[in-house]
DNA sequence: TTTTTGTTTGTAATCGATTACATTTAAGCA
DNA sequence: TGCTTAAATGTAATCGATTACAAACAAAAA
């Protein structure tokens, strides 16, 4: 591989001049700039990033840690993250945490080892000790998005999960539903708690009483939605007329459970999801759901991290708006 | 940040010894190894990867270029790629090409600039000139998976698209269908041509004649499947009784088009997809489709690239098996 | 012409780890 | 004990780019 020395030789100048011609052209005469450009082309030079990174002690790489690349929710968030990063000349390294603490640890290590300049965390399913340790030294550039830790304060981009769930529940109540169940995500997850709280308040506001066996826990997969939906629908007593699911995949699982149980959506059962993933428009019936501004979340999170890296003073906590999208999986409650 | 020098000082030895204690412990006495380990812990040392990469001129990073992270097809492929990479101590940098030639160029540049050791290409939608140029110098570690260029030979992991499409079509024929349409992916894409060829042969084998206006082109999205499906179903003459779609998302789009047109699947229309993505079990009806071993494709591709990097002698072209998964979107052809 | 000021370029130290080679130390053996 | 061999450690060059500082040069002002 040709190095900056080869270019310097070909352009008949010093390496310092080559470096300047490439990095800060205004510091160099027109003639030299030209000669260097030609020399670069001639020898086929390309800059050795490791050398630059070593010298500058930065890597222009941001690590994004997410629970699972396969989750369609994250793809738009990632698009947003990437677009901002690229504009600012940064790379994005996607790290699938995949329930593997060692892996997460190794991603965190990329920062002290100068392979990454900062981290964006999209999941709370990571070893708490690690995060706590990093958050302790204030210099560690770490931003959360989508989720958050309820016992640890980090710069965060999020939505108002409680409010969104509250509104979704209110909507069901407004349709006349009185027996409203919910399928949550993993109970230890703070955003799931928030959504659950929103659901409870929605019921309480309407003076409906909350039945504990209508609050069931899933894990955000199709399958868990299907299973929990099946269980909810086969209860002996009067079954719920509406189910609020904490994400779309589980809601789509419920749709299938309803079909299998011969329960017609939305006539006999209303279903609401959360996230508004692409598939929610193509399932049968189309899913009423809470839309999240995923791309904007990604963009904002990356901007926040870059601002922190540049030591700019910025609000460390931003909330973005959600919107209830009404489609055809919800309807007026059936008469008893 | 503490460096190797700080460790050396704390362990009362030279930097060379520290380096050896960490990288090749067998070259160092037990006592020293111990001292070094303690010193590392004490000063909180972590290796500067840029320095190591510079010295070793490698980066232990593999770039994976894909057309679109949002495409659920790729998530399992990526899982496979990552698992093998991590085992071998490599990082995976995911690059979303996103119809942006500049971006792709910048990903390709990571190799000469020592930020990446090799590239896995999952898309043919990249500037041909770039690929051709790289492929020209034989040293450039570049592997294709899932797709391929028909005018350029590169190490490749793939499936037999023609055969898979042939079998899918045969299956429809065996169910008694005589009017079988197809929705292809982008026509310039070699794998789409292969699948189309398989379809044609399937019809030809059965002595069915091929109707050109039953071969329509989509772009692998839900939406294009919906649109093309709608058009196919509203044709004046007798409409097709089966549609073979070149991926699942388009097939799911067709399912929706059929619902909207009041055509019952599978009684009046059979639909087959391709890929077997997660959704295909949760749509209504469940989708008959061609299963691809996505995770295995990823694993095999990464292994191939790592073998190439290690200069091991390996077959540069491997084909993996597909399987037709019959679910409920296909049935015997309706009587005329 | 001389001095001042500003522009352009070069010299050489530096970033942090690795490793060839040299040196020291220890172990084995007669 | 003295000699050979092996193991352990140290010295210092190296990877390639950046940049503080110095030097050279040109243009402007006196």
Automatic annotation (TrEMBL), chains A, B:
Protein name (record): LacI family transcriptional regulator
Organism: Marinobacter iranensis
Pfam annotation, one family: LacI
HTH lacI-type domain ranges (all copies): 2-56
The entry's keywords: DNA-binding, Repressor, Transcription, Transcription regulation
PROSITE patterns assigned to the protein according to its UniProt record, in alphabetical order: HTH_LACI_2 (PS50932)
């Amino acid at each position: 591989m040709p190095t900056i020395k080869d270019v310097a030789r070909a352009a008949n100048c010093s390496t310092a001049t080559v470096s300047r011609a490439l990095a800060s052209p205004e510091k160099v005469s027109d003639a030299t700039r030209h000669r260097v450009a030609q020399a670069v082309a001639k020898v086929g030079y390309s800059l050795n990033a490791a050398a630059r990174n070593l010298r500058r002690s930065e890597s222009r790489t941001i690590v994004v840690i997410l629970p699972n690349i396969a989750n369609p929710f994250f793809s738009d968030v990632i698009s947003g993250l990437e677009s901002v990063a690229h504009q600012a000349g940064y790379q994005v390294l996607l790290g699938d945490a995949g329930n593997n603490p060692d892996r997460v640890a190794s991603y965190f290590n990329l920062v002290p080892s100068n392979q990454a300049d900062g981290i964006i965390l999209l999941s709370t399913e990571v070893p708490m000790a690690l995060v706590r340790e990093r958050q302790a030294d204030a210099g560690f550039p770490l931003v959360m998005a989508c989720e958050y830790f309820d016992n640890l304060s980090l710069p965060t981009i999020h939505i108002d999960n409680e409010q969104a769930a509250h509104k979704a529940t209110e909507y069901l109540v407004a349709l006349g539903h009185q027996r409203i169940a919910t399928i949550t995500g993993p109970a230890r997850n703070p955003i799931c708690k928030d959504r659950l709280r929103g659901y409870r308040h929605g019921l309480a506001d309407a003076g409906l009483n909350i039945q504990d066996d209508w609050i069931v826990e899933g894990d955000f997969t199709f399958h868990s939605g299907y299973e929990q939906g099946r269980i909810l629908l086969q209860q002996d007593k009067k079954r719920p007329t509406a189910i609020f699911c904490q994400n779309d995949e589980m809601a789509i699982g419920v749709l299938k459970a309803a079909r299998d149980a011969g329960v017609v959506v939305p006539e006999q059962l209303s279903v609401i999801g959360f996230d508004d993933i692409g598939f929610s428009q193509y399932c049968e019936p189309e899913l009423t759901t809470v839309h999240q501004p995923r791309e904007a979340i990604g963009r904002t999170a990356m901007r926040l991290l870059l601002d922190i890296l540049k030591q700019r003073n910025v609000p460390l906590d931003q909330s973005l708006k959600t919107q209830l999208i009404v489609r055809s999986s919800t309807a007026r409650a059936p008469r008893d």
